[in-house]
Amino acid sequence: MIYRFITIEGNIGAGKTTLAKMLGDRLKARLMLEQFADNPFLPKFYENPRQYAFPLELFFLAERYQQLKNMFAKPDLFAEVLVSDYLLMKSLLFARINLLDDEYHLFHRLFDIIHPQVPQPDLLIFLYAPVARLQQNIKKRNRSYEQHIPDEYLFKIQEMYVQFIRQQSLPTLMIDVSDADFEHEPEQFEQIVHALDYEYEPGVHYLSL
Could you confirm whether the keyword Hydrolase appears in this record (predicted)? Predict the structure, then answer.
């Protein structure tokens, strides 16, 4: 395996955790999954975004940072690969969408202190799906507090991610999952696994399933 630290990113409902678990199992890798259910502000945020956005994003940033620090402080000698279903940078991207300007500037200062302290992935996998498909996936997984996420919010996240992907320098494999079902279509999952055999230059590379 060329890559030792693989991170999977994408919009809400893109299939990040599903793919991370499948790759973790196939590669016999350590798995680092976001503990979003531990964030007590998440259901409250969807009910009242303005009131709970700042504590929501602070909690996520602290939890993600602590999880990354703990993971790399105790390397598992029997598992050479680490697969994660989030990138720490997502904290800043979501903060830009959810916070007022003065809140965002403060959050950005905190992020700039934390971000250099955690390793960056060797490969970023970005799952792209249109908003209509994201909404289908969100409905299917049936988390109560997600059932009324407006399309507009998902579009904002999508735009923010696309802008970030174009500007960043990590080797990035963008996978179009608009019509994909890699969980139930083995050949699609094998395409993804096969794509990990290639060494990618910094920048964006594309894979359609």
Answer: no
Looking at the 3D structure of the chain, how many domains does it have? 1
**pLDDT tens string 97-125:** 999 999 999 999 999 999 999 999 999 99
Any idea what the CATH number is for the domain that residue 169 is in?
3.40.50.300
Q: 24 labelled as ligand-binding?
A: no
Picking from 105, 18, 43, 95, the residue whose alpha carbon sits closest to that of residue 64 is: 95
- Residues 78-87 have a mean pLDDT of 88
C-alpha–C-alpha distance, residues 54 and 18, integer Å: 28
- Domain extent, residue 34, equals 5-208
| 13 is known to lie in a ligand binding site | yes
Q: How far apart are CA 180 and CA 171, in angstroms?
A: 22
Catalytic residue check, 146: no
Catalytic residue among 9, 63, 80, 187: 80
Whether the Cβ atoms of residue 137 and residue 15 lie closer than 8 Å to each other? yes
User: Is the per-residue pLDDT at 78 higher than 70?
Assistant: no
